[in-house]
Amino acid sequence: MHPDNPQPRTIAQVADSVRADALIAYPTDSCYALGCRLGSRDGIDRIRSIRRLDDRHHFTLVCQDFAQLGQFVRVDNDVFRAVKASTPGSYTFILPATREVPRMLQHPKKKTVGVRIPDHIVTQALLAELGEPLLSSTLLLPDEEEPMTQGWEIKDRLDHVLDAVVDSGECGTEPTTVIDFSSGEAEIVRKGAGDTSRFE
Q: What does the alpha-carbon distance between residue 199 and residue 47 come to, in Å, rounded to a whole number?
């Protein structure tokens, strides 16, 4: 897929496959991610299996814009300003989930969910076509230090467990910076591609 002018027909095909319960690998402004439809139990099970995740893992809702993000998490004014100033960008924010978020996606004890708005042309085009967030997790395989950066490499290794790989050229290796705002105060959970200085 063209990195600067993604072909609308291809984007539409990928969105249709996601709606039909496909599990995809797609590029973001940090690194490749696994993504599926918001309510896809099969997709969630497959992501857990590929990454060997337990039920305490925070999935991320990758949103097109702030308006969409606001449907799925609760943000007070201070948090709103901090999140707004950092999006779109390589940040994941952990926030209290609204009722729009399926229970199976929420952290079992905290009732929180991760959200992000990526600064990536291809991902933004896909989200616009889809009209809802992608349920996502960083494509980092168990026992590996760094994520894969090339679409062909992902297809080579994971073709048997994925339905599609969106390839728009090389991707980064650094996952997002994760900021937990669930208590109202910023807590840096993981330092990654996004600058943490504004949250320290």
A: 30
Q: For the residues 82-103, what does the mean pLDDT come to?
A: 92
How far, in Å, CA of 139 to CA of 148, rounded? 8
Intra-chain end-to-end CA distance of the chain, in Å: 38
**54-57 long-range contacts, CB within 8 A, separation 24+:** 55/108, 56/107, 56/108, 57/137
Give kind and range of the element (H or E) at residue 122: helix 121-130
Phi, psi of 78 (to 5 degrees): -65, -45
Collapsed DSSP state (helix, strand, coil) of residue 112: strand
Radius of gyration, CA atoms only, the chain:
16
Dihedral sign for Cα atoms in the order 87, 92, 94, 96: positive
The CATH number of 8-190, from 3.90.550.10, 1.20.1440.230, 3.10.20.810, 3.90.870.10, is 3.90.870.10
Q: Which two tokens stand for residue 11?
A: 């984007």
Amino acid identity for residue 54 in this structure: D
The string of pLDDT tens digits covering residues 132-171 is 999 999 999 998 888 888 999 999 999 999 999 999 988 8
